Amino acid sequence: MSKDDHGREIDYLRISVTDRCNLRCLYCMPEDGVVWKAHELILTIEEIERLVRIAASEGFSRIRLTGGEPLVRLGIVDLVRSVVETPGIESVAMTTNGLLLPQMAEQLKQAGLQRVNISLDTLDAEQFTYITRRGKIEDVFAGIDAALDAGFNPVKINAVVVRSLNQDLLAFARLSMDRPLHVRFIEYMPVGDSCGSAGTGWTEADTIPNDELVTMLNERALAAGIGQLQPLSKTNAPKGWGPAQYYQFEGAKGTVGFISALSRHFCSECNRLRVTAEGQLRPCLFSDVEYDLKTALRAGDDDSVRDTIRKALKTKPDSHHNRVGTERLMSQIGG
Ligand code: SAM
Ligand code: SF4
Question: Which ligand sits closest to the CA of 206?
Answer without folding.
Answer: 1
